[in-house]
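Full entry
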Amino acid sequence: MVKIEIEHTGGLHSEAVHTQSGTALQTDAPLDNGGRGESFSPTDLVAAALGTCMTTTMDLYAKRNGLNIDGAKAVVVKQMTSKPVRRIGRLEVVVTVPLPANHPQRAALEKVALNCPVQKSLNPDIEIPVTFSWGDDL
């Protein structure tokens, strides 16, 4: 179990504290929804969670199988929609893996990324196209 304590600090800002580590982060409403865009918005955190979940699950698999994927990257582009209500409409992900495209563990690494817990927790109405770029493509 993980406990996160959140305090609304005013001006569309909140602070969340990860109680186990004491790490804090701040949020702000996005510019297009009345905020100042001074920090991650709550929906930006969803996009960040997806990308970091993908790279983390890939790294867990890599470590169990004697691989090193240090330097792997994920770029997530979030697009909001207002239909039928304001929500995340699309999270486009590009994952860059510093291994050759013909690596024997390629399919397994891609599979664990596509099945990360955040991906599996998101509403199925959100479009989530994922592209993998391997070392040969860099």
